[in-house]
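Provenance

Sequences were taken from public entries as deposited. Structures were produced by running a predictor on each sequence independently, with no templates supplied. The record for RRM domain-containing protein from Salvia splendens is shown for reference.
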Amino acid sequence: MESTEEYDEFLKKVERTIYLDNISPAVTEPVLKAAIDQFGKVITVQFIHAYLQPNGIHAALVEVENKKQAETLINELESVPFMVGGCLGLSGPRLLVSRCLLIKLVKKHAEEVAFLLNEQVKEEEQLAKMQSHTLNGHHNKLKLIESISGEGKLRKLAQIYEIDI
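Predicted structure for RRM domain-containing protein:
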């Protein structure tokens, strides 16, 4: 007798529970609860993690107070795009279009990064050439000063201009 009561209670809970998919991993239980509370009182939120996609899209089971609230919530979610935590819940062909756009955007960003890295390498090569030229100039000046002081010309110039060294 007890098992049939548990089963009936389980069926009632299933009628009040809504399955949400395409949830961003950034969405937390309080955020989801606050977003759905506008349609009805949320009792529990249980996340279903996609273990094959560790950083991918997740799903959740949301239990509301009664069956009518669940039906209202389902109707609202089907008719209007629903955004939770700044991420639009997409489904069907819109999801495919958004994923295609995302793939194009990722490719574009990769190309931009590659271009910027090439430009940075070119700038570093130019800077290295300039620094090498400057270093050679300083080296030549120091060699000239060393040759002047080593040959005794520096002392003669100091005597001519009456400067102490």
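The mean pLDDT is 82.
The CA atoms of residues 18 and 74 lie 7 Å apart.
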